[in-house]
Design brief:
This protein is an alpha+beta fold. 49% of the residues lie in helices and 14% in strands.
């Protein structure tokens, strides 16, 4: 019975799970280089609240907010991001743009103020 749910037995590959983590790590480092602050960043496979389906036809890629102490929290919706990415080599850039864009919206800055390359 040991190993019944192993990746090899069910044909799951470790690469698919790790590529998102790796790309997010790269994007987060770029984000920290520009922002110089640490935000609470998490990702979820699918949003717990599926009301977006009735409100809009576009699933959320990222959501954000401010805590009571004023800290920025960002949530990336992994499943919808992965469905949208055509070229996996562009995943770090897409994640970075999502992080910078949401940070800008929450802090009242423009993306160009945070990163002059935008």
């Amino acid at each position: 019975m040991a190993g019944f749910f192993s990746r090899e037995r069910h044909g799951r590959r470790t690469y698919a799970a790790n590529r998102f983590d790796h790309a997010l790590g790269i994007a987060h480092r770029w984000f920290l280089d520009q922002v110089g602050e640490v935000a609470s960043i998490q990702y979820v496979t699918a949003p717990a609240d599926m009301d977006w389906w009735q409100q809009d036809t576009t699933p959320p890629l990222i959501t954000g907010g401010l805590t009571e102490s004023g800290a920025v929290t960002l949530t990336l919706h992994r499943k919808f991001i992965e469905l949208r990415v055509i070229d996996e080599s562009l995943l770090p850039e897409m994640l970075y743009e999502l992080l910078i864009g949401e940070w800008a919206a929450l802090t009242g800055q423009s993306m160009a103020e945070i990163d002059p390359n935008f």
